[in-house]
Amino acid sequence: MNKEPMTQMGFENLQEELREIKTVKRPALSKALEEAREHGDLSENAEFLAAKELQGFIEGRAIEIQDLLRRAEIIDVSKLSGGEIMFGATIRLADEDTKEKVTYQIVGTAEADIQEGRLSITSPLARALIGRSKGESVEVSTPRGFKSYEIVSVRYK
């Protein structure tokens, strides 16, 4: 069984999502299925078919979350320190071409959300950053070509 690294916050977010599935989404879906059954012939009932499809998605997500929680290896970022980038680091980068600055935290794949500044440990950028330190430059292949970044800061919070 492969361990899944994640932060405490990521673990708690998955627990909350699973709780919501069990206490909110499943009961609502059960009610929707019951109402759809009351409309007659199930083979031609679009509401029933849509509810069954949603049920499959929700149950699949619940199984996925339970598996992630079982395999979770929680890494306490607050106990980490140093200047070298590793899992949990919050990194400030400057694009060497545009000078635009961005901040990312390197997290597990299950909690990654680039819009929220959470970069998956398996992403090309995170892999290029691991082991590097403030002041170094990294070059990463992107769909638009190579991008170069300077590491402006590294911190653990």
What does this structure look like?
With 157 residues, the chain is of the alpha/beta class. The protein has 2 domains: 71 residues, Helix Hairpins (Orthogonal Bundle), CATH 1.10.287.180; 79 residues, Chitinase A, domain 3. The chain has 3 helices and 7 strands, in the order E-H-H-E-E-E-E-H-E-E. A 5-stranded mixed β-sheet has the order 5-4-3-7-6. Strand 3 and strand 4 form a beta hairpin. Helix 1 packs antiparallel against helix 2. It is elongated. The chain starts with a strand and ends with a strand.
Short description:
The protein has 157 residues and is α/β, with parallel strands linked by helices. It folds into 2 domains: 4-74, Orthogonal Bundle (Helix Hairpins), CATH 1.10.287.180; 77-155, Transcription elongation factor, GreA/GreB, C-terminal domain (Chitinase A, domain 3).
Keywords for this entry:
Chitinase A, domain 3, two-stranded parallel ribbon, Helix Hairpins, alpha/beta, five-stranded mixed beta sheet, 25% strand
- The value of Rg in angstroms is 21 Å
Helix content: 25-40%
Content of β-strand: 15-25%
Number of domains: 2
The average pLDDT is: 92
Question: What is the spatial order of strands in the main beta sheet?
Answer: 5-4-3-7-6
Per DSSP E runs of 2 or more residues, the count of β-strands stands at: 7
CATH topology of the largest domain: Chitinase A, domain 3
CATH class of the largest domain: Alpha Beta
What is the molecular shape?
A: elongated
Q: Helix tally?
A: 3
Given as residue ranges, the uncertain stretches (5+ residues, pLDDT < 50) are none
How widely separated are the two ends?
Answer: 29 Å
**Major beta sheet, specifics?**
5 strands, mixed
Name the CATH superfamily assignment of the largest domain.
Transcription elongation factor, GreA/GreB, C-terminal domain
How do the helices and strands follow one another from N- to C-terminus? EHHEEEEHEE
* Structural class category: alpha/beta
The CATH architecture of the largest domain comes to Roll
